[in-house]
Amino acid sequence: MNTSQSEHLLPGGAISIEALPKISLHDHLDGGLRPQTVIELADAIGIDVPTTDAAALGTWFADQANSGSLVEYLKTFDVTTSVMQTVEGLERVAREFVQDLAADGVIYGEVRWAPEQHLARGLSLDQVVEAVQQGIEAGIDDVFSSGREIRVGQLVTAMRHADRGLEIAELAVRHRDRGVVGFDIAGAELGFPAGNHRAAFDYLAKEYFPVTVHAGEADGIDSIRGALFDGRALRLGHGVRLAEDVTIEREDDDNSYVTLGPVARWVRDRQITLELSPSSNLQTGAIAAWGDELIDHPFDLLYQLGFRVTVNTDNRLMSNTTISKELGLLSDAFGYDVDDFEQFQQNAVAAAFLPLEEREELAEDIADAYAEV
């Protein structure tokens, strides 16, 4: 299990954030590898990596990702996906992924990844999904053996710049009773609207299969609109640029007076979930319109206005982060306390792609744990 994570404490320094139960909705499998695992898997299949020192490789990923551009940020995935082309590689990465989630206090997680990116060594789409599921289940068993519990579901993702959306949607539905809980589209957002995959979204709607869509990260309101009305998205992957549809009319010492545009109002009033990833949003330039520091992130504005915000990592390796670290950063920036942390987790529970009864159980577990803090 990865033991390199440092502890993050609640304001006042008395309580470990890692010890609090958390929900993870937006976390990419190919963005969560351990550097040492990248090195070992690359060596096993004869692939060169930038360095064979684990600490230095972790730094390389973080430096490369800290570009201010989603396109440049995505190039780091060429390295991670290259070592995830075999059953052994996929199983190991998925198993360790679950272990690392549990080490951060996650009790329910959804892991998203694009099967079409893992076929270079001859595996089929079904074989790669099965390999990841085997790894997830092994990781869950490891966590259980250590005296804890975690539940994890797959979000099968189609690459928005490719033309395999319907095929990947059918793959997701084919595995809906074998670990897959939802569908996503990801990759380069600008110039590749959700409407390009309308056939896939139509199919998923007919199958009553839940959808989240990356939108409002590298493109603005039109992209979000497409995710909602072409994709029928129940959640927005990032969605941070929804704040472009929020106009601050005036501010005084205690209050901001705002007007919501039609898309922002629809998202808030329908409680469509925002899968916000603060550190990643800084790295990719998603919040460039507001600034280049975490205090500039519109997270708090959206939270105060009643949007269903959640806290996520996006890519733990590239952002050198965990959910606990993200919560600590947000607390430092906006003064959040344990009650806010609980609200973020309850927001995520409500949005999880799980049956109602399981969401209610998770909500009770979260409430009970935070009541003891």
UniProtKB/TrEMBL annotation:
EC number: 3.5.4.4
Cofactor(s) this protein cannot do without: Zn(2+)
GO molecular function, one term: adenosine deaminase activity
Keyword Magnesium: no
Top-level taxon of origin: Bacteria
Domain Adenosine deaminase, first and last residues per copy: 21-368
Alphabetical keyword list: Hydrolase, Metal-binding, Nucleotide metabolism, Zinc
GO biological process, one term: adenosine catabolic process
A GO cellular component entry from the record: cytosol
Record family assignment: Belongs to the metallo-dependent hydrolases superfamily. Adenosine and AMP deaminases family.
Protein name: adenosine deaminase
